């Protein structure tokens, strides 16, 4: 099994991973297109995707869960480190959270969303509707940004099977779906960036893990997924998921990141923690 024992330079890392995986390397690591894929000014990989600040309720980055049509929870989930937002759907499409409306009707609270996290919906009192409209637009802009990056460092790596691989910083593109049938490691420094462009769905098998190594941070890992995202039971995922469709966390799966969906986010006894 190939492993990165220390964080190499961008060029060496690309060569090492290409040699280990035997396919998919474009040989462009560090050669980002200045217009469509600017380089990371602080480390390896592409420039980060802008989500706004965690303190701005009009920014996607303020929300751990953000969706357009619904957010559901079967039982027992815990959302920590940020807010839950839904728009243009109303609060009635947030289910399973036992919400308590604030007297102002600007937000609700729930034991499942750890304070100071709050729940916001499009039919709440001002300024919540306009804040959520802006946050949703920001989420869609971030998705478009990530999807529009060009000149990938790795193209169709592993034919979409990431099981057992170690992923260095860079832009990865697949014209298919991506599966994680065995643990995968994301290895790089604290300021390095990963963008994963996935043309179909993303599926993480039961009990499998995305593991961070060498200081890599979930806040710098972006999964742009055109199809459905399914994180199966008892698995663990790292990074910011931006799905054109739905994001489903099955029973006791955990997420260290954000779930930003242009349709539905579905939880089932999950721990979701902001990066």
Task: Please tell me about this protein's structure.
- With 275 residues, the protein is mainly beta.
- The relative contact order is 0.18.
- The protein has helices at 10-21, 128-148, and strands at 63-67, 70-73, 78-80, 83-86, 94-95, 100-101, 108-109, 119-121, 154-155, 166-167, 170-174, 178-180, 184-187, 194-198, 202-204, 210-213, 221-225, 229-231, 236-243, 247-249, 254-261, 264-267, 271-273.
- Helices cover 12% and strands 32% of the residues.
Overall shape: it is: globular
Secondary-structure element sequence? HEEEEEEEEHEEEEEEEEEEEEEEE
Largest sheet: 11 strands, parallel
Strand segment count: 23
> Proportion of β residues?
25-35%
Unreliable spans are 1-23, 26-32
Give the helix level as a range of percent.
10-25%
**How many angstroms does the end-to-end distance come to?**
29 Å
Provide a count of the helices: 2
Give the rounded overall mean pLDDT: 91
Radius of gyration: 18 Å
Structural class: mainly beta
């Amino acid at each position: 099994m190939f492993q990165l024992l220390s964080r190499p330079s961008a060029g060496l890392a690309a060569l090492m991973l290409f040699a280990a995986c035997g396919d998919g390397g474009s040989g462009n690591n560090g050669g980002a297109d200045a217009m469509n894929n600017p380089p990371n000014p602080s480390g390896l990989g592409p420039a980060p995707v802008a989500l706004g600040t965690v303190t701005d309720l009009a920014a996607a980055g303020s929300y751990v869960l953000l969706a357009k049509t619904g957010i559901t929870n079967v039982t027992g989930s815990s959302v920590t480190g940020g807010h839950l937002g839904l728009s243009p759907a109303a609060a009635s499409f947030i289910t399973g959270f036992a919400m308590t409306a604030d007297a102002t009707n600007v937000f609700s609270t729930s034991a499942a969303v750890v304070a100071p996290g709050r729940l916001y919906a499009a039919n709440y009192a001002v300024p919540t509707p306009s804040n959520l409209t802006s946050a949703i637009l920001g989420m869609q802009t971030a998705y478009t940004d990530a999807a529009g990056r060009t000149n990938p460092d790795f193209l169709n790596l592993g034919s979409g099977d990431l099981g057992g691989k170690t992923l260095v910083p860079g832009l990865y593109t697949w014209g298919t779906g991506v599966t994680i049938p065995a643990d995968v490691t994301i290895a790089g420094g604290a300021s390095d960036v990963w963008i994963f462009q996935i043309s179909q769905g993303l599926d993480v098998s039961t009990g499998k893990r995305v593991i961070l190594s060498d200081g890599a941070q979930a806040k710098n890992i972006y999964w742009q997924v055109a199809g459905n995202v399914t994180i199966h039971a008892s698995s663990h995922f790292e990074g910011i998921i931006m799905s054109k469709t739905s994001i489903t966390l099955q029973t006791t799966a955990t997420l260290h990141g954000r779930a930003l969906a242009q349709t539905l986010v579905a939880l089932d006894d999950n721990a979701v923690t902001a990066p």
